[in-house]
Design goal:
With 123 residues, this protein is of the alpha+beta class. The protein is built from three helices and eight strands; from the N terminus they run αααββββββββ. The strands form three sheets. A four-stranded antiparallel β-sheet has the order 4-3-2-7, with no helix packed on it. Strands 1-8 form a two-stranded antiparallel ribbon. The chain has a two-stranded antiparallel sheet with strand order 5-6.
Length: 123
């Protein structure tokens, strides 16, 4: 986009506006070399873009409508939407990514949980 000032990787560096330009550039280059974690954890210091970047990239499963989680397994999540329709969301299991790494989605909700439209249910 012409309005985008910095790249997605660059925007994920905490306190970017307070860093020296050379140090920020070095951090952005290091971001490109990152590999996915087997057991990920929430960062201690974070910025706003990572959740939005994951949703935009399609790396996470997002509930299309509000509803209640009916069933959760390693391969799929079934949601009963408020309008009475049932939707099953399939997860990618050990799929090869374009970077030569493995993409594996895991559910982050439990049966009986209430979800809202746009909420991440698997990452």
């Amino acid at each position: 986009s012409p309005r985008q000032m910095v790249s997605v990787a660059f925007s994920m560096i905490p306190f970017l506006e307070h860093d020296d330009a050379n140090r920020a550039l070095m951090g952005a280059n290091m971001q490109r070399q990152a590999v996915p974690l087997v057991r990920s954890e929430a960062p201690l210091v974070g910025t706003g873009p990572p959740p939005r970047a994951a949703i935009d990239a399609g790396d996470v499963v997002v509930a299309e409508e509000s509803g209640v989680i009916e069933e959760v397994s390693a391969d799929y999540i079934t949601v009963m939407h408020d309008n009475g329709t049932r939707r099953t969301y399939r997860m990618r299991k050990f799929a090869r990514s374009n970077h030569g790494t493995c993409a594996n989605q895991c559910p982050i909700v439990d049966a009986g949980d209430r979800v809202e439209a746009g909420q991440v249910i698997a990452d």
